[in-house]
Amino acid sequence: MTLRFISFVGAIFVAVIAVIVCFTSIIFKLPPKMEGTSSLKFKPLSLKFRELIESGYERGAGLVVFENGKNVFDIVGGYADIRFEVPWSPNTITPIFGSSVLPVAFIFGLLKDRNLINESVAVRSYSEKFPSKYLTVAELLTHMTGYAYPTDQLSFFDIRDEPDNVVKALFKKHPTFPSGTPSFHFHTLDLIAGDIVSNVDIKNRPLARFFLEEIVWPRATPELSS
């Protein structure tokens, strides 16, 4: 009887706490904030952005769109720090993950247009260091090399300053997953892609330099150049 009473009291206590937490979150929910400018053409995007902020699905974000060199959408919304009610601003700094995926796709698209690379060809054809003779460039770009991340302890300075040695060390180890298995690249896509780019590029430029000189700078707006 005593155990049942304790269980009953415990259940009531948990229920009361849940109700308090629920009402507290409702009472102290911060009002949605959003500011910026948008062209009429991008009004649907503005409405979707507002929906994400007001629903609480997106706590804070900023989005800028350039079309033909013109800033057509520049809006921030939500909070950078909910605890201190700090709104998201154009100057809010945030970490970016997976930032090499899009640049690599743009670079390989450009290399294909210039007939410097074929996505159906084996990676080994462009990178002698790559262990597999059969894995294609297309499989690299769809994250199927199996080399999800370096197993050695590395710093970002190692990756930046000695990419060739890092790639060699990476390929001396067994893949994290069997080759051909879908698995995301953590800090390895840019290493493998960079080795390919420097080999097929007549100037042997590293990945970042190629991206800047061939894609970013030729299309740069004053905002990007500053």
Automatic annotation (TrEMBL):
> Which controlled-vocabulary keywords does the entry list?
Membrane, Transmembrane, Transmembrane helix
* Entry-linked InterPro entries: Beta-lactam-related, Beta-lactam/transpept-like, Beta-lactamase/esterase
- Residue ranges annotated for the Beta-lactamase-related domain, each copy included: 50-216
User: Pfam family of this protein, just one?
Assistant: Beta-lactamase
The membrane spanning regions, by residue number, are: 5-28
Is-annotated flag, keyword Transmembrane?
Answer: yes
Q: What is this protein called?
A: Beta-lactamase domain-containing protein 2
The protein's organism comes out as Schistocephalus solidus (Tapeworm)
